[in-house]
Amino acid sequence: MNNKTKETLKDLFSFNTLQIVIMGMLIALYVVLNRFVSINAWNLSIGFTFLPLAVAGMLLGPFKAGLVGAISDFIGAMLFPFGPFFPGFTLTAFLKGMTYGLLLYKKQNIGLILAAELICQGILSLFLQSYWISYLYGYPYWGVVVSRFVQVGPLFVIETIIIFILIKTLIPQLKATLKGK
């Protein structure tokens, strides 16, 4: 491995105080948005939990954004449960954070936003989350997928627009503030 690769890996997996504070704030925001500002039913979840994950992905990178998702889901499930804790949902939250980090960490444009949303909503929410629901509650998988399609379609559009606006307004200011420390 060359020195540049080592530095990149070191940056991805090491934590400084500022990053830990940002992660803590985003975890708290995720838990509040998920447990108190979202509409949740056994197979339906409409809310803004994608915001802390997308911000974590853009500011902190894939691994740290994945941790924000996993820790947030775990803490939310322990403190404010909707049902039994299930590690599959935590894995999905980790993968969503990773997706935002992989696609939006260094560069953001409409194509990358669409790709991130396609993966997060189209694959992870529609298919993987439906699998976990089907497995956990014993419902037919394709029946769950069809019922969740009503949620995923509009959320894909709404989340894409909100992330685009976020990138144009808030993220440059946050990055400038973090660099200025």
What does this entry show, briefly?
By secondary structure, this protein is mainly α. It has 7 helices and 2 strands. The model has no long low-confidence stretch (mean pLDDT 88).
* CATH class category: Mainly Alpha
Give the biggest beta sheet. Answer: 2 strands, antiparallel
Global Rg: 16 Å
What share of the residues does DSSP label as strand, in percent?
under 5%
N-to-C span: 31 Å
The SS-based structural class is: mainly alpha
Q: How many structural domains are formed by the residues?
A: 1
* Range of helix content: over 70%
Can you describe this structure?
There is one protein chain. The protein has 181 residues and is mainly α. It has a single domain, classed as Arp2/3 complex 21 kDa subunit ARPC3, CATH 1.10.1760.20. It is built from 7 helices and 2 strands. The protein has a two-stranded antiparallel ribbon. β1 and β2 form a beta hairpin. The longest helix has 40 residues, at 141-180. It is globular, with a radius of gyration of 16 Å.
Secondary-structure blueprint of this entry?
Elements lengths: L2 H11 L3 H20 L2 E2 L4 E2 L3 H11 L1 H18 L7 H18 L5 H28 L3 H40 L1
Antiparallel strand pairs: 1-2
Helix pairs in contact: 2-3, 2-4, 3-4, 3-5, 3-7, 4-5, 5-6, 6-7
